[in-house]
């Protein structure tokens, strides 16, 4: 009788399944369950890696954040010397979420922009000099890329440049009236002795320009004031922080408590929204 009772108990347990087995089944089911269709994920900016051909055969590599709506403003982001396009990743995502098309590029010889169409290597060497015409041509290729993108308003393009990239930004914009706004981070009046920006900012006229530097970057702090004096219009804004470093380093500057000391991204977005979205706000 005891033997029969033991068999019956075993059969009963097998039919019910062990607690561990039941938990495993439930966990597997939960892991494979589809997300609730009522939950809409927040928009996440995703960059598309693009290649832009220059007139002399260099393959410029960039990160392009597509606009979500028709007639969107657009930004071209130019980095400082020895850096690459990824110094702008956080700002680019922010501005894309705010309604902008954004293109950040590796300058020729930096990042992934190191090859020509024939496979030859592209190098930059200050000792051998750098041709401003090539830099301006690269900027033009990037702007032309933006012009052709779906949902981009070609009359609402702004350029952000850092260090020598700011020189390229203002020099290019000076000769292209369709550029609606420029932000210059740690600009110089004549980087490498062949990127003069004083004549450029005079020619740029009264279009909006934001000049930013930090006092601990003495040359740039002095130069933003010189450029402000040289500007031909009333739409030149200057912000000089007490410290923060050079170029895009100002984005990441922290105070003694490791908090963001300068809301640079807030400053830039407010300026760019006013310059490039003013027509939208008035509707």
Describe the structure.
This protein is α/β, with parallel strands linked by helices and 283 residues long. It has 2 domains: 2-32, no CATH class; 48-281, 3-Layer(aba) Sandwich (Rossmann fold), CATH 3.40.50. Helices cover 36% and strands 21% of the residues. The chain contains 9 helices and 10 strands. An 8-stranded mixed sheet has the order 1-2-4-3-5-6-9-10, sandwiched between helices. Strands 7-8 form a two-stranded antiparallel ribbon. Helix 5 (164-174) links the parallel strand 5 and strand 6 (179-185). The chain is globular and about 45 Å long.
How would you concisely characterize the structure shown here?
It is built from nine helices and ten strands. By secondary structure, the chain is α/β, with parallel strands linked by helices. The chain has an eight-stranded mixed beta sheet, sandwiched between helices. Strands 7-8 form a two-stranded antiparallel sheet.
Shape: globular
| Spatial order of strands in the largest sheet | 1-2-4-3-5-6-9-10
β-strand number: 10
Task: Name the CATH homologous superfamily of the largest domain.
Answer: Alpha/Beta hydrolase fold, catalytic domain
Would you tell me which CATH topology of the largest domain applies?
Answer: Rossmann fold
CATH class of the largest domain: Alpha Beta
The assigned structural class equals alpha/beta
Main β-sheet description: 8 strands, mixed
Oligomer kind = single chain
Structurally, the number of domains stands at: 2
Low-confidence stretches: 1-43
Instruction: Name the average pLDDT.
Output: 85
Number of helices: 9
Amino- and carboxy-terminal Cα gap: 91 Å
What amount of the residues lies in strands?
15-25%
Provide the helix percentage: 25-40%
Q: Using only CA atoms, what is the Rg? A: 27 Å
Q: CATH architecture of the largest domain, please? A: 3-Layer(aba) Sandwich
Order of helices and strands: HHEEEHEHEHEEEHEHEHH
């Amino acid at each position: 009788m005891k033997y029969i009772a033991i068999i019956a108990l075993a059969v009963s347990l097998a039919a019910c399944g062990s607690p561990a087995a039941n938990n495993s089944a439930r966990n597997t089911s939960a892991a494979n369950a589809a997300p609730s269709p009522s939950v809409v994920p927040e928009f996440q900016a995703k960059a598309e890696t693009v290649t832009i051909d220059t007139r002399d055969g260099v393959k410029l590599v960039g990160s392009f954040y597509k606009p979500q709506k028709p007639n969107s403003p657009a930004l071209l982001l130019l980095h400082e010397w020895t850096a690459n396009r990824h110094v702008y990743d956080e700002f680019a995502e922010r501005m894309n979420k705010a309604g902008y098309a954004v293109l950040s590029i590796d300058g020729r010889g930096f990042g992934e922009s190191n090859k020509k169409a024939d496979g030859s290597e592209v190098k930059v060497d200050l000792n051998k000099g750098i041709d401003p015409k090539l830099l301006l041509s690269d900027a033009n290729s990037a702007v032309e890329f933006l012009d052709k993108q779906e949902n981009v308003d070609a009359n609402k393009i702004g350029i952000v440049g850092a260090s020598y990239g700011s020189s390229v930004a203002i020099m290019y914009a000076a000769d292209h009236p369709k550029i609606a706004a420029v932000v210059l981070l740690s600009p110089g009046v004549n980087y490498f002795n062949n990127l003069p920006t004083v004549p450029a900012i005079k020619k740029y006229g009264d279009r909006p320009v934001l000049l930013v530097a930090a006092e601990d970057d003495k040359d740039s702090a002095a130069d933003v004031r010189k450029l402000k004096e040289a500007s031909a219009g009333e739409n030149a804004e200057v912000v000089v922080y007490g410290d923060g470093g050079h170029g895009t380093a100002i984005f990441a500057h922290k105070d003694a408590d490791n908090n963001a000391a300068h809301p640079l991204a807030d400053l830039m977005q407010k300026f760019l929204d006013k310059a490039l979205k003013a027509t939208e706000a008035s509707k």
